[in-house]
């Protein structure tokens, strides 16, 4: 993890000073993948939580798979509420990746019990979430709640892709998780797209154009 910045409670503190108590961090994963769902997590963490593992939390992209897995259970054991939402390939292809991402985030926030009364989202604002909200630039790096959501989202989606690897063998989904790596593109060119590939995404379209 190097010397990367430890996410703080600054954003949560500002909202608490305005009277909000249940503040959810929201993040998505899989937006840029070529296959599988886009998935969002919403997490309400205890304010100013001081557990020993707190300083290990980072944006999930800065952690190894083993580090993410080691933080998943502590977060789940500590959170006040967690929600997961996802949009499948049909939704992504028919509505576009931006709207599909918003739908996943809306679902995640709706699942929270206790209900959130304010929301912090990495970068985005989501009109369909009818709560006070703030899109935080670099939120998964700077904001503790969003960083926790990024870890929950990433581990959950990675596990889904490992399941999809079993039902769609030959594409190595368990390794690349649906992202456009060289090995994934090689499998695509060899086998063609399967049911969970996003055919509206350019690399998949290119393979389809070559094959047909």
Task: Write structural notes for this entry.
With 212 residues, this protein is an alpha/beta fold. The chain has one domain (10-163): Ribonuclease H-like superfamily/Ribonuclease H (Nucleotidyltransferase, domain 5, 2-Layer Sandwich). It has 9 helices and 5 strands. It has helices at residues 10-17, 65-78, 89-95, 97-110, 139-142, 144-167, 173-176, 182-191, 202-211; strands at 23-29, 38-44, 81-87, 118-122, 133-136. A 5-stranded mixed beta sheet has the order 3-2-1-4-5. It is globular and about 60 Å long. The termini are far apart. The model has no long low-confidence stretch (mean pLDDT 95).
Q: How many E strands?
A: 5
What CATH architecture would you give? 2-Layer Sandwich
Helix/strand class: alpha/beta
User: What is the CATH topology classification name?
Assistant: Nucleotidyltransferase, domain 5
- How many helices? 9
CATH class: Alpha Beta
> How confident overall, as mean pLDDT?
95
The biggest sheet amounts to: 5 strands, mixed
Helices, strands, pairings?
Blueprint: H1 10-17, E1 23-29, E2 38-44, H2 65-78, E3 81-87, H3 89-95, H4 97-110, E4 118-122, E5 133-136, H5 139-142, H6 144-167, H7 173-176, H8 182-191, H9 202-211
Helix pairs in contact: 2-6, 3-4
Summarize the structure.
By secondary structure, this protein is of the alpha/beta class.
């Amino acid at each position: 993890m190097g010397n990367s910045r430890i996410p703080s409670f600054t954003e949560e503190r500002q909202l608490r000073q305005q009277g909000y108590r249940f503040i959810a961090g929201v993040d998505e994963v899989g937006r840029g993948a070529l296959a599988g769902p886009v998935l969002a997590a919403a997490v309400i963490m205890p304010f100013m939580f001081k557990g020993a593992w707190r300083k290990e939390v980072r944006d999930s992209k800065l952690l190894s798979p083993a580090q993410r897995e080691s933080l998943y259970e502590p977060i789940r054991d500590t959170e006040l509420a967690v929600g997961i939402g996802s949009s499948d390939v049909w939704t992504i292809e028919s509505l576009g990746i931006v709207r599909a991402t918003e739908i996943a985030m809306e679902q995640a926030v709706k699942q929270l019990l206790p209900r959130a009364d304010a929301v912090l989202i990495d970068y985005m604002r989501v009109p369909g979430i009818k709560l006070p909200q703030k899109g935080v630039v670099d939120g998964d790096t700077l904001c503790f709640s969003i960083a926790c959501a990024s870890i929950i989202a990433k581990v959950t989606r990675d596990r889904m892709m490992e399941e999809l690897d079993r039902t769609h063998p030959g594409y190595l989904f368990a390794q690349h998780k649906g992202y456009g790596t060289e090995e994934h593109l090689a499998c695509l060119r060899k086998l063609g797209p399967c049911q969970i590939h996003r055919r509206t995404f350019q690399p998949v379209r290119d393979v389809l154009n070559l094959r047909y």
